[in-house]
Design a protein that fits this description.
Strand order of the largest sheet of chain A: 3-2-1-4
Distance between the termini of chain A: 45 Å
Oligomer: homodimer
CATH architecture of the largest domain in chain A: Alpha-Beta Barrel
Number of helices of chain A: 14
Structural class of chain A: alpha/beta
Largest interface: A-B, 64 and 64 residues
Helix content of chain A: 40-55%
Radius of gyration of chain A: 21 Å
Chain lengths: ~425, ~425
C-alpha cells in the first residue's frame, strides 16, 4: 500500500509526501512516483496524529445517561448497574463507535481499560486504528478473584497476537484500592518478563490517598515504588493528588503519567494536576487523555488540550505555562514516546500516523500560528483526513461505513439502558 | 416574512413551528399555513439561540497573533500596538467575521465593547444578528479625555437609531482603573435618563481590587455602589475577585454579571468565578461570555458552557453544581433577561431567536439527554440552522456570502499584522 499526499502544507511549505507501508519515503516539492492512493493536500496542513492516553472506549454507551450527580450515587446507582448488564456485543459496538469518534477527532492511538477485552480488540482491529488495551484488573483483595484475573490476563495476552499490528496488550491493574499487593506483584513480574505496559489509575482522589495511607502507611506512589511496580513501562493516570515527593519517585523510576483535565473537573476530584511539580520541578513525562465518555463526555483530544493548557496557566498563575506548541507536542511526540511508538514526526524514514487539518475552517483564520489556533481556537472538526499505519481511515471527514456504526451503536445503547 | 419549520423536535416531540416577523404564531403537529420560507426540521432539535454576554468582536483580527506571554508584555508589546494601528475598515471586517463565527456557533446576540463603534454596528446590521454595542470608554482620569468620551458617546448614542433593530447602544466604561469617578457619574445619569445598559469589566484581577482599595479605600463593587452606578442596567464582566460582601451589594442593586471562564484561565487571573457566592448564596443573575479572540480564542459559547459548568463543579467540590440544563438555561433564558430581551423560550407568542441542532452529529449519540450532550459532549458544530428575528441566517451550516467575508477578513488581518 503506497500513498501520496500532494501539495500539503508541512512546516509552512507546500510539499508532496510519499508513504510506503506507513513509512515516509519521500518529502519533496514534487513527487513523481506512482501511488495506490493519492490525497489532495490543498489548503491542508499535515501533522502527526493525536494520541489519547487514557480512556474507557465503550463508555460511549453511557454518554449522557447520568451526569450532575454525587460520585457515589452516580457510580452505584447508575454507572455500575448498567455496566453489569453489558454484553460482549454491547462493548464491541460501544468501542467501535468510540474508535469512529476518535478518528473524527484526529486520534489514531488510544490507551484503554475496559471489560470484555476481546470486544474492544476486535473493534480496534476492524476500525484500523491502534489500541493499547487492558482489561480491568480488579480483585478487591480476594485471592480467588486475584487468581481468576491472572488467568484471564494470561489468556488475553496470548490471544492478543491475533489482533496485531493494531492491538497491543497491556496490563490494567485498576488502582491501589481495588487490587491486592499480591496481584500487583504478579503484574510487576509479568510486565517485566514480557515487556508489557502497566496502565493504572494513580492518585486521582483524596480518598485513594487516604486509603493508601490507612492500609500501607504510604502514598499510592510510595507503595507502588515499595513493591517495585514502577518502571519505564508504568503509566499512571490522573495524578491530581501527587505531591512533590511522589513526583520525584516517579521520575527516579522513569514512570509516566496521563493527565485528564476534563474528567478531573467534571468529577470534582478536589485538586488540579500539579503541573509545576510534574513538569517544571521533576520533568516526569506525561501526555493527555480524554477519559471515558461518562466523565468527559467527548473523545475530542483537541478540546482536552485546551483544558490542559489553560489549567496549567491558571494553576501556576503564569500565562506562559504549557504553550500551544508544547501542548501539541505532548499530545503527539511525547505521547508516542510514552507508548514506545516510532518517532512521531513527519520526517523521511519515520512512520507516524498523520492527520490533515483543513485550514479553510473559520477557527483557523486569520492563521497567524497553527498551533495556537488548534489548541486555543478549535476542536476535532478541523481534522479532514486521518492516516493510520499508511492507510487512509478518513478523508473529507468521511469514514467508510460510519452510518451503520452510528445506527447499530445507538440501538445497542438504548437497548442497554432499558434492560 | 413568514417562516415554517417542519417536523422539528421540540421538547422531545415532532412539531411544526410557524413564525411571523419573528413571533411564534403556531406550534402544532401539522401546520397548514403558507410561509415565505420552509425549513426541513428532520433530525433536528429546535432550541432558543445562545447569547454571548461579553466580547470584543473585532479581536478576531488578533487570534493567534500573540499567546503564552506574561500579561504586561503581551498587552504592551503585542496587543495594544496592533490595536493602535486598526482602522475603521479593519474593525468592520474583524467584527463581520466575528458575527459569522458567532452565527456558526449558534449565537444571535452578543454584548460588545470595542473601538470604532460604528464599524461594529455596521457589521452587526449587515450580518443580521443582534448586538449590544458599547465603545471603550477610557479617560485615564484626565478631564479632557473624559469630556471627549462623553461627547463621543452622545454622538454614537444618537447615531445608533440608524442600526435598529439589530443594534442597541450601551455605555461601556472600561473599568474602575481606567475611568474617572466623574465619568462614571455621567455614565450613571445618562444610563438612567435614557434607560441604557452599562457594560463594564468588574473584579477581573487582583490588581484591579488593589487599585480600587488604594484609590478609594473600597472594593470596585463598593465604590460603584457608593457613587450609584449599580442598578438593574449594570452588567459587570468577569467578577473573579468578588467577595461575599460584593455579591450581596450586587444583588441588592439588581445588578448582573457575565462569567468568562476560558479567558480567566488563559490570562491566569488567579481566582475562579466565585460560583457558590454568586449563585447559591446571593443568586446574582449571570450569563456566559466568550471574551475576545485574543484571550479565548474561540467564539464558541458551547465550549464556554462546558468550561463554566466543569469549573463550578470543581471549585465547589460538588459534581451536582451547574447542571447541564441549568447551564444551557443560563446561556439562553437567563441571558435574555439580563439584556431585557423577550422571553427566550420557544412558545406561542414569544419571539426568541432559534437554532436547530443536528441530532445526526456523532457527539449527540446515543442521545439520552440533549442538554448533557450539548454542554458536555459537543461544540458549535452541532448547530445546523440559525434564525434571528424571524430571518434565516444559516441553514445546513452555510451562511450566504461567507467565502467573501473569510477572504476579506484574512487579508485585513495579515495586512494589519505587517503594518
Amino acid at each position: 500500500m503506497t500513498l501520496l499526499i500532494q501539495g500539503v502544507l508541512l512546516d509552512g511549505h507546500k510539499k508532496d509526501i510519499y508513504i510506503n507501508k506507513g513509512i515516509i519515503e519521500e518529502i519533496s516539492e514534487r513527487c513523481t512516483r506512482n501511488a495506490d492512493r493519492i490525497i489532495n493536500g490543498k489548503d491542508k496542513v499535515a501533522l502527526p496524529s493525536l494520541i489519547n492516553g487514557h480512556t474507557h472506549a465503550a463508555m460511549t454507551l453511557l454518554r449522557g445517561y447520568a451526569d450532575d450527580m454525587p460520585l457515589k450515587e452516580w457510580l452505584e446507582g447508575k454507572i455500575w448497574p448498567l455496566e453489569n448488564k453489558m454484553t460482549a456485543d454491547d462493548i464491541y459496538w460501544g468501542s467501535k463507535f468510540a474508535c469512529l469518534e476518535m478518528i473524527k477527532n484526529g486520534i489514531t492511538v488510544f490507551n484503554d481499560m475496559y471489560w470484555f477485552w476481546e470486544s474492544t480488540a476486535k473493534a480496534v482491529y476492524d476500525m484500523g486504528i491502534r489500541g493499547f488495551l487492558s482489561a480491568v484488573f480488579i480483585d478487591m483483595f480476594d485471592i480467588k478473584k486475584s487468581m481468576e484475573q491472572i488467568e484471564y490476563n494470561i489468556e488475553i495476552f496470548e490471544l492478543s497476537d491475533k489482533y496485531r499490528p493494531n492491538v497491543t496488550f497491556t496490563l490494567g491493574p485498576h488502582a491501589i484500592y481495588t487490587v491486592s499487593k499480591e496481584s500487583l506483584q504478579w503484574v510487576r513480574d509479568f510486565s517485566e518478563k514480557h515487556n508489557i505496559l502497566v496502565h493504572m489509575h494513580l492518585s486521582e482522589t483524596d480518598e485513594e490517598t487516604r486509603f493508601s495511607q490507612d492500609r500501607y502507611g504510604l502514598s499510592p506512589t510510595e507503595f507502588l515504588d515499595d513493591i517495585g511496580v514502577l518502571s519505564n513501562r508504568f503509566i499512571g493516570c490522573h495524578g491530581c493528588w501527587l505531591d512533590d515527593r511522589d513526583c520525584g519517585i516517579l521520575k527516579r523510576n522513569s514512570a509516566k503519567l496521563v493527565h485528564m483535565p476534563v474528567s478531573n473537573l467534571k468529577l470534582s476530584v478536589g485538586r488540579l494536576f500539579p503541573y509545576r511539580h510534574i513538569k517544571n520541578v521533576h520533568n516526569v513525562p506525561f501526555c493527555f487523555g480524554t477519559d471515558g465518555c461518562a466523565s468527559n463526555n467527548h473523545l475530542d483530544l483537541i478540546e482536552t488540550m485546551k483544558f490542559a493548557s489553560l489549567l496549567a496557566k491558571f494553576s501556576t498563575n503564569d500565562p506562559t505555562m504549557l504553550s500551544a506548541k508544547e501542548t501539541f507536542d505532548i499530545a503527539t511526540k511525547a505521547a508516542a514516546n510514552i507508548f514506545f511508538l516510532p518517532e512521531w514526526e513527519i520526517k523521511i524514514g519515520n512512520s507516524p500516523d498523520i492527520i490533515l487539518v483543513d485550514t479553510k475552517k473559520l477557527e483557523l483564520k486569520p492563521g497567524f500560528d497553527i498551533f495556537s489556533d488548534i489548541v486555543y481556537a478549535s476542536n476535532g472538526y478541523i481534522v479532514d483526513t486521518v492516516i493510520c499505519m499508511g492507510k487512509v481511515l478518513m478523508e473529507d471527514r468521511y469514514v467508510p461505513g460510519e452510518e451503520d456504526i452510528i445506527e447499530e451503536f445507538s440501538k445497542t445503547a438504548h437497548r442497554l439502558a432499558t434492560k
